[in-house]
Amino acid sequence: MKRRDEVLVGLMLIITVVVGVAGTVWLARGGLSSGYPMYALFPWGAGLKNGQPVLLAGVNIGFVSKVELVPNGTLLVTLAVNNEYKIPTGTTASVEPNGIFGDQLIALSPKLLVTTYLPERDTIPTGKGSATTGQVLSKADSVAAEAQTIIAAVRAEFVTDGGITEIRKAITELSALTSQLGTIATEQSRELSATQRQLRATLAAVDSSVVDSTLRAFRTSSANLAQLTGDLEKTRAQVSSILFKVDSGSGTAAKLLNDPVVYARMDSLLLRLDALVADVKANPRRYINLRVF
Amino acid sequence: MLEATWRAMHGAVRNTLTSVGVYGYYLRDIVRSTRETDTWPRETIRQMRVIGVESVILTIIVAAFLGGVTAFQTRFQLFPGVQVSAVGLISRQSIVLELGPLLTALVLTGRVGARMTAEIGTMRVTEQIDALETLAYDPVAFLSLPRVLAALVMLPALTMLANTAALVSAWLTLILATDVRTIDYVEGLRIAFTPFQVVYSLIKATCFGGAIAFVCSYQGYIAKAGAEGVGQATAKAVVITSVSILTLDAIVAAIFAPFVQA
């Protein structure tokens, strides 16, 4: 019985030690065979620590096994790369954010169509990483600050200075105007409808035979009017010819109108006729000697 | 009124100091009893079996549920944008640094500590301890020291098994019931891991084991006569041990937490 206790206790302790040691080694080094080491140099403050994943073109090929602080401002990072993976020549290493809580990973970016590989324990050149979480947060902070400024300006413009009140007033007035326009449109529509109905009734009341006769009469009148217009044109031409002759001074009428001598004679004649009429009125017997029988 | 308050405070302080003093005497007796090398080694082996081997199944079952629930809850409390490997990291840190040793100790307080107090208390009330003293046997070397040594050794062992069982259970839960893949979980387990985190867990377990054995054996040792006395001693032992474990947990965390960081 005593020996059985010792065996059981011993067995349990051995199992515990083996499990503990093996688990610790597996977590810390990835197992007894933790792949082969590669190295990379990054500046201080890269946020690297043991256990962070190493990705080759997005595929997890190992983890960070050691981070050493070098006094010249760099971190010497040892990468434990699984034996089944080789790193192509020309690959660059960069520190990339892993999630949004500031965790990091090491991303290896290989060159395409390269068939040669870096030897074990070589140092992978450092490439340019993407923006870190800190940089993204800094940018977000600046954006937030600008947004706050804009919001303050908008608040001052719309709230403090009464912009919203004016907008509400304008909307109210616009609403009233829209209502009035609607009323007018309704009224116009009603009137147009009435006019349309009246027109339709009028059109319906028109006799087509009367319209035909009216049109014929209208055509006849038009023909007559055209003839009259032609006659008037001829008359106008004749009158123009006469007027031209009168203006040019040729002919009797022209002379009658244009010759001052004729005017003087006519004036003299009229004076003499006035004198004669006056004499006739004064002395009718001198000129009219009427005898009956 | 003022005098009564003063007397109450005086009595409380005196009782506390008395308790600390008798615990100190008991610790002194345990240390002294290490000289009785004919008495305690064999009993220690037996107590290691009782405390350790016989508690393995219970410990693993509790740890398995603990790990599964921790991982499951962690996965579904993550909001979008957080890398899934955080589940492994949070599960490992929760289990190894805190829940593994603490829950193992609390479970063993009920299973081992209560049994310890009841055994020694029964021996006290049936005057078996007096008989040992009459036979020139050191009862502390026979009853207390083996239990304390066994607990100091077996609690870390059980905690190691509990941590392993909880992490394996967490892994199984995640790959069977969630979208977390093995590679994500393993990646999270390895982030910021240092071997000292395991040592930290074992330090806690050692302290808890010592507290369980020391307090429970003492409460049994001073149990009053009668079945009721044993019952009261057992209940008191479980309460004091649980509070002591939580207090030690805080103290160990305050001392060693800065060294745990990767």
Structure summarized in a few sentences:
The complex is a heterodimer of chains A (about 290) and B (about 260). With about 290 residues, chain A is α/β, with parallel strands linked by helices.
Q: Could you characterize the architecture of this molecule?
A:
The complex is a heterodimer of chains A (293) and B (262). Helix content of chain A is 60%, strand content 16%. Chain A starts with a helix and ends in a 6-residue tail after the last helix. Chain A has 7 helices and 7 strands; from the N terminus they run H-E-E-E-E-E-E-E-H-H-H-H-H-H. The longest helix of chain A is centred in the middle third of the chain and has 43 residues, at 163-205. Chain A is of the alpha/beta class and 293 residues long. In chain A, helix 4 crosses helix 5 (251-258). In chain A, strand 3 (59-70) and strand 4 form a beta hairpin. In chain A, strands 5-6-2-3-4-1-7 form a 7-stranded mixed β-sheet, with no helix packed on it. Chain A is rod-shaped, with a radius of gyration of 61 Å. Chain A has helices spanning 2-29, 133-160, 163-205, 208-248, 251-258, 260-282, 284-287, and strands spanning 36-43, 53-56, 59-70, 74-81, 92-97, 104-109, 123-124. By secondary structure, chain B is mostly helical. Chain B has helices at residues 2-33, 40-51, 56-77, 86-125, 128-134, 139-177, 182-190, 195-221, 227-260. In chain B, helix 1 packs across helix 6, helix 4 (86-125) runs antiparallel to helix 6 (139-177) and helix 6 packs across helix 8 (195-221). The relative contact order of chain B is 0.16. The A-B interface holds A 2, 5-6, 8-9, 12-13, 15-16, 19-20, 23-24, 27-28, 30, 49-53, 60, 63, 98-101, 103 and B 42, 45-46, 48-49, 52-53, 56, 81-83, 85-86, 92, 153-154, 156-158, 160-161, 163-164, 167, 183, 187, 189-195, 198, 202, 262.
